[in-house]
Amino acid sequence: MSDNKRIVLAYSGGLDTSVAISYLKERTGKDVVAVSLDVGQGGESLETIKQRALACGAVESYVVDARDEFANEYCMLALKANAMYEGVYPLVSAISRPLISKHLVRAAHQFGADTISHGCTGKGNDQVRFEVSIASIDPTLKAISPIRDLSLTRDVEIAFAKEHKLPITQTEKSPYSIDQNVWGRAIETGFLEDPWNGPTKDCYAYTDDPAFPPVEDEVVIEFKQGIPVKIDGRDVTPLQAIEEMNRRAGAQGIGRIDLIEDRLVGIKSRELYEAPGAVALIAAHQELENCCLEREQHRIKRDIDKRWAELVYDAQWFSPAVRSLNAFIEETQQYVSGEIRMTLHGGRAVVTGRRSDSSLYDYKLATYDSGDTFDQKSSNGFIDIYGLPSRVAAARDVRFGNGIEVPDNTVE
C-alpha cells in the first residue's frame, strides 16, 4: 500500500482510539499512523502509549512531549488575553486542540497520509476545533471521526476488541467524560447531565475541598511582559509556573467551575471545570494590567479579551481575526511587568499587593495627604467641558417640554 493511503489518528491510548486503529484499517483499507501528545494530562508514559498503538496495529507511532510548547505558545497567549469563555471558563480544551491539530498535520506530511481521524462525537465542540484547525493548516487533508462517521459505539468497540484479540485492558468505565491538560480539567456527562444534580467529590482531581482548606498560602508572582517568570523569587518557566500554581491553588480548592455553557454546535451543556493554576494566574495578571495599562487601552483590551475567548472557543485559533487580536494583545503587554502578591485560601485567590516599575499608579497623584501633586482646581474646567454636551442637550429638552421631571418632596 502506498504512503498516500494512510490515516493519521489522534491517539490517546484508551479503548476508543485503540480499537479505532484496526477498525479504521478494516473499514477504509488504509494503514493508520497513531499520534500522541503529552500536554500535561498525566497518566501513562508516551512510551507505553506508543507501544500499545503499535501492538493494536498502527504502522507508525508519532509521540511528542509537547508540555513546554503548550505552556509557552498556547497557555501564555490565553493568559495574556485573560481568556475566560462566558466570563468563567479558562479554555482548557479549546487551546489544546489547535496544538494537537498542528502535530496531526505535521505527522500527515511526514508519513504521507491524506486523511486525519479524531475520536470526537457529533455533538461536541472539539470535532469543529480539530477539523477547522486542520483545514486552516492544510485544506487538502480530509478528516473523519470513527464515532461520528463510522458508528463506532462502545458496545461495538468492546466486541471488536474481543474478536480481534486487541491488547487492551478494559477497566470500569468512568461515569464522566474527562479531558485534562496542564491548564485544567473538564468533566461532563453521566449524572451531571441533570443540571439540578450537585457535583460530588469524585468529580474532582485537581482541587481539594475548599470548605476544609489548609492554612492560607501567600505567593508572590513576578511577570515580565505578561508572562510569569518568578514565583516567590525563584525563576520558573511558563510550564513550571502553571504546575506550581496548580498544586498550591488546587490545595486551597481554587478554580472549581460549574456552569451551563453555550456550545458552538448550538446546544447548552452542563460542564464542570477545575483550573486552579489558570484561575490564580489570570487573576494576578489582570491585577497587574490594572496597574500598567492606560485607561482607554485597558477598556479596549477588556473587550478584546472577551472576543478572543469567544473566537478561540469557537475553533478560530488560526483565523485572521485571532491573529489580528493577538497583535494588539501582544503590544499591550510591553509594560505588564512587576510583582503581584496573592493570598490563596478556601477557594479564593485574593490579590493583596502590587509592585511594578512600569505601573501608571502615581502615589503623589493618588494621595489625599501632604505631597499631593494633583491640581484639584483643574477639575472645575474639566467638569465644565466634560458636561457641556449634557447641558446643551438638557437646554433643548427644556425648550421642547421634555426636561427631566424632578419629584417634589416638599412637606406641607
UniProtKB/TrEMBL annotation:
Superkingdom, taxonomy of origin: Bacteria
Residues that hold ATP according to the record: 10-18, 119
Entry EC number(s): 6.3.4.5
Annotated pathway: Amino-acid biosynthesis; L-arginine biosynthesis; L-arginine from L-ornithine and carbamoyl phosphate: step 2/3
A molecular-function term among this protein's GO annotations: ATP binding
Residues noted as binding L-aspartate in the record, renumbered to the chain: 121, 125-126
GO CC field: cytoplasm
Keywords on record: Amino-acid biosynthesis, Arginine biosynthesis, ATP-binding, Cytoplasm, Ligase, Nucleotide-binding
SUPFAM superfamilies: Adenine nucleotide alpha hydrolases-like, Argininosuccinate synthetase, C-terminal domain
Pfam families on file: Arginosuc_syn_C, Arginosuc_synth
Arginosuccinate synthase-like N-terminal domain: residues covered: 6-167
Catalysed reactions listed for this entry: L-citrulline + L-aspartate + ATP = 2-(N(omega)-L-arginino)succinate + AMP + diphosphate + H(+)
A GO biological-process term: L-arginine biosynthetic process
Main EC class the enzyme belongs to: ligase
Keyword Ribonucleoprotein carried by entry: no
Primary location: cytoplasm
Record's keyword annotation contains Amino-acid biosynthesis: yes
Coiled coil: none
Sequence positions that bind L-citrulline: 89, 125, 129, 177, 261, 273
Location of the protein in the cell: Cytoplasm
Domain Arginosuccinate synthase C-terminal: start-end pairs: 176-392
Similarity comment text for this entry: Belongs to the argininosuccinate synthase family. Type 1 subfamily.
Alphabetical list of PANTHER family matching this protein: ARGININOSUCCINATE SYNTHASE
Assembly mode: Homotetramer.
The protein's name in its UniProt record: Argininosuccinate synthase
